[in-house]
Amino acid sequence: MEFQKDNSFITGRLKSVRYTIIGARKLITTEHSVMVQFSIAILLIIAGFYFDISREEWMMQILATGLVLAIEGMNTAVEKICDFIHPEYHEKIGFIKDIAGGAVLFAAIASIAVGLLIYVPKLCNF
Q: What are the EC numbers (predicted)?
């Protein structure tokens, strides 16, 4: 069966949202690093309610968590594309995967910094 694009504004957008939800579910249920990061995100949500963090702290926590999960999703997509194009080890493919992994590291470091700024003062006053 041939793919046919839905050009209708409403049904086309609904189908797009459906596919993005399916993609997010696949990412969370199949990728171990995302499973870990998603679990940490859940723990941070619980911690946010427990420590009654401010609106601004919620915004920073949500942005930091979303950044890590989004970059990890892009990293996974890059790795899957690389594996599809060149299943055997290749130096240039390894270089590309390393760069994508480095992007995740930068996002994770920024996210950790946000978490420390939010929770260290609260733990010190606990």
A: 2.7.1.-
For the annotated binding site, the residues are 19, 31, 72, 79, 88-90, 97-98
- Residue 28, amino acid: I
Q: Could you tell me which residues are annotated as the binding site for ATP?
A: 19, 31, 79, 88-90, 97-98
Contacts of 33 (CB under 8 A, 6+ apart): 72, 76, 104
Q: pTM to 2 decimals?
A: 0.86
> Would residue 72 show up in a list of annotated catalytic residues for this protein?
yes
Chain segment 62-99, per-residue pLDDT in tens:
999 999 999 999 999 999 999 999 999 999 999 999 99
Q: What is the CATH number of the domain that holds 117?
A: 1.10.287.3610
Q: Which residues are annotated as a binding site for a divalent metal cation?
A: 31, 79
Catalytic residue among 2, 56, 57, 72: 72
Domain that holds residue 114: 32-124
114 in any annotated domain: yes
